[in-house]
């Protein structure tokens, strides 16, 4: 039986952060950032799903502090419907309320300016979403 990975996605208007688990689905690691450029982005995500043997995508859902939908939440829901049509694996939402803030804190602790490294924030946020899912869904 082949081992499969999980993929975490941090959706952004300009960039999409991608994280992957290890094949045993124990560790979540930042992987890459792709431009959010419509159909090319979906094609790239599907390519990664196939190449990295992903069996489930965890998509960060940006709720407000009260747990309610926002304009960004609705944008992510539209993205999710398009993503589901582009890939052959399930896509599951996961609360991402604090992932970008945690990513900025992690970069700051490493001495990296978040202003200069927005791409790092996106893929680290994706890994935080994925790790939170893995830690809380077992």
How would you explain this protein's 3D organization?
- The protein is α/β, with parallel strands linked by helices and 138 residues long.
- The protein has one domain (5-136): Nucleotidyltransferase, domain 5.
- Helix content is 43%, strand content 25%.
- It has four helices and five strands.
- It has a five-stranded mixed beta sheet, with helices on both faces.
- A hairpin with a 6-residue loop joins strand 2 and strand 3 (28-35).
- Helix 3 (99-109) packs across helix 4.
- The radius of gyration is 14 Å and the shape is globular.
- It starts with a strand and ends with a helix.
- The mean pLDDT is 89.
Number of structural domains = 1
- Overall CATH class: Alpha Beta
The SSE string, one letter per element, is: EEEHEHEHH
**Strand content range:** 25-35%
Strand order of the biggest β-sheet: 3-2-1-4-5
Give the end-to-end Cα distance, rounded to a whole number of Å. 20 Å
Give the C-alpha Rg.
14 Å
Low-confidence stretches: none
Given the structure, what is the number of helices?
Answer: 4
Shape: globular
CATH structural architecture:
2-Layer Sandwich
* Largest beta-sheet details: 5 strands, mixed
Number of strands: 5
What assembly state would you assign to the polypeptide chains in this entry?
single chain
Supply the helix-strand structural class: alpha/beta
Proportion in helices: 40-55%
- The pLDDT mean sits at 89
Could you say what the CATH topology is called?
Nucleotidyltransferase, domain 5
CATH superfamily: YqgF/RNase H-like domain
């Amino acid at each position: 039986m082949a081992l499969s990975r999980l993929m975490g996605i941090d959706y952004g208007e300009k960039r999409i952060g991608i994280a992957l688990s290890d094949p045993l689905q124990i560790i979540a690691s930042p992987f890459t950032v792709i431009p959010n450029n419509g159909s090319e982005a979906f094609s790239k995500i599907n390519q990664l799903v196939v190449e990295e043997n992903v069996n489930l995508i965890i998509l960060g859902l940006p709720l407000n502090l009260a747990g309610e939908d926002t304009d960004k939440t609705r944008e992510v829901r539209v993205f999710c419907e398009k993503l589901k049509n582009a890939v052959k694996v399930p896509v599951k939402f996961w609360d991402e309320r604090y992932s970008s803030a945690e990513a900025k804190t992690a970069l700051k602790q490493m001495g990296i300016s978040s202003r200069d490294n927005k791409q790092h924030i996106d893929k680290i946020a994706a890994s935080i979403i994925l790790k939170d899912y893995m830690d809380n869904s077992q």
